[in-house]
Amino acid sequence: MAELPPYFNIDPDQALADLGPIGSTAAFGEMAAACTRGRDDLAARGMDATGQKSLRLFSTWEITKYLIPVAPAHFRRVLKSNPDLPQGKTETEGGAKWFTLDEVLRLRAHFSQEGSKSKEYRPYRPEGLPAKIVAVANFKGGVGKTSTAAHLAMSAALDGYRVLVIDLDSQGSMTSIFGGTVEDEWQTVFPLLARHYAEAAQVENHSRLSRGEQVIDIDDTLSEALKVSAPDLIQKTHWPNIDLIGAQLNLYWAEFQIPVWRMAARRWKLWDALTERLEADGVLADYDIIFVDTPPALGYLTINGLSAADILLVPLGASFLEFDSTGRFFDMLHATFGSIEDSENMAARALGRDGMAFEWDAVRAVITRYDGAQQAEMAALMQAYLGPVLSPHRQDFTALIGQAGESVNGIYEADYRDFNRETYARGRQAFDATYAAFKRLLIGTWRRDEKARD
């Protein structure tokens, strides 16, 4: 007799015995505590003896293959003839030399000054133009949104750019990747949004007082926010050229507070809050690229992140459900930002002012975790419908990507000696190609700005 499927002949008494206690609110607390202990344990495995997350060292082979375009022999000659440059450390007598990323950046600066002018030792960056803000967004979970943003940030840092990462997702996954510590919402972007509102309320109150109307209350929260600027929230990470504004669970409170503020001061342009605070506090001049990881929902925090962005990246998988969900995401973007424009332009026309329109330098959908053997037909169909909006680059799924996703470390934080060399090269190649496609967008937008300025 053929073996029956496992869903036949389930014993009710055994099922009851396996069921366990009834769920409760208190049980959620116990589950959360267990997850916290597990998370801390996993995070600690990437920390040094002081309890801080540390970045691995980079070998001469890796530096000359991926980071500084020189031959290994020439690299060694330059170090020998310049003893004031970082010389690296060896783990064994006569073994390979290993360098910190900070030392790699110093070496890159030397080669940029003294090396061949035909080689790109430092990435393209027009002087006098502000940082580019890059939002990575989609309200479909599991599409690789946070890992894509994190690995692009790491790629850009390895390339020599100064990077700021802003975590708008109260789950704080990006914050965990970069070893951030966030005690409460006052160490997130929340006080920046509150300050922007408080300043708008103060302006509104001047008008109301002149008309003899009731003013907007500037409570203790808003008074405290007026004292906070973006540099107060920026924390260093274990990457020398990646800084972070982190997130934690209490940040979600902003989704409830913002509409309350909006009701009190309808003229407040909440969608400009993040952009204008970053600009006013000099952040756009201090960095080259700012990556914004948004929540998997189109709430007020996501709207701020998207409206601040110069470049919008939308990761998705090559499947019907993710294609369908991403279409709905674009539809919501159309409806949400269209509604804001219509409302603002109606008021502008009444006052005889110019209208407004949201604009992005580039918007690209990016296929992630791609399996060419299984998804080629679906990806081609998606490309046919989305055209240039869908990046022709596919981010292949490899064993290294899967292993990196199971740990706190990113692919670029993984020591290649922990993997099969071929596996590492293949996994790195997938993300290097993703970064190359992004960098082409980045350089194109900067060049367009540069030509418009000149």
Summarize the structure.
With 454 residues, the protein is an alpha/beta fold. The protein has helices at residues 12-19, 25-44, 60-67, 72-81, 101-114, 145-158, 173-177, 190-210, 220-225, 230-233, 254-264, 273-280, 283-286, 300-308, 320-350, 372-386, 399-405, 421-453; strands at residues 58-59, 89-90, 97-99, 132-136, 163-167, 235-236, 242-245, 289-293, 311-316, 362-370, 390-396. An eight-stranded mixed beta sheet has the order 6-7-5-8-4-9-10-11, with helices on both faces.
**Counting H and I runs of at least 4 residues, what is the number of helices?**
18
Mean pLDDT over the residues: 87
Radius of gyration: 25 Å
Count the beta strands.
Answer: 11
Please tell me what the overall shape is: globular
How do the helices and strands follow one another from N- to C-terminus?
HHEHHEEHEHEHHHHEEHHHEHEHEHEHH
The rounded distance between the terminal residues' Cα atoms is 82 Å
Query: For the report, how would you describe the main beta sheet?
Result: 8 strands, mixed
Strand-residue proportion: 5-15%
Helix/strand structural class = alpha/beta
| Proportion in helices | 40-55%
Strand order of the largest sheet: 6-7-5-8-4-9-10-11
- Poorly predicted regions: none
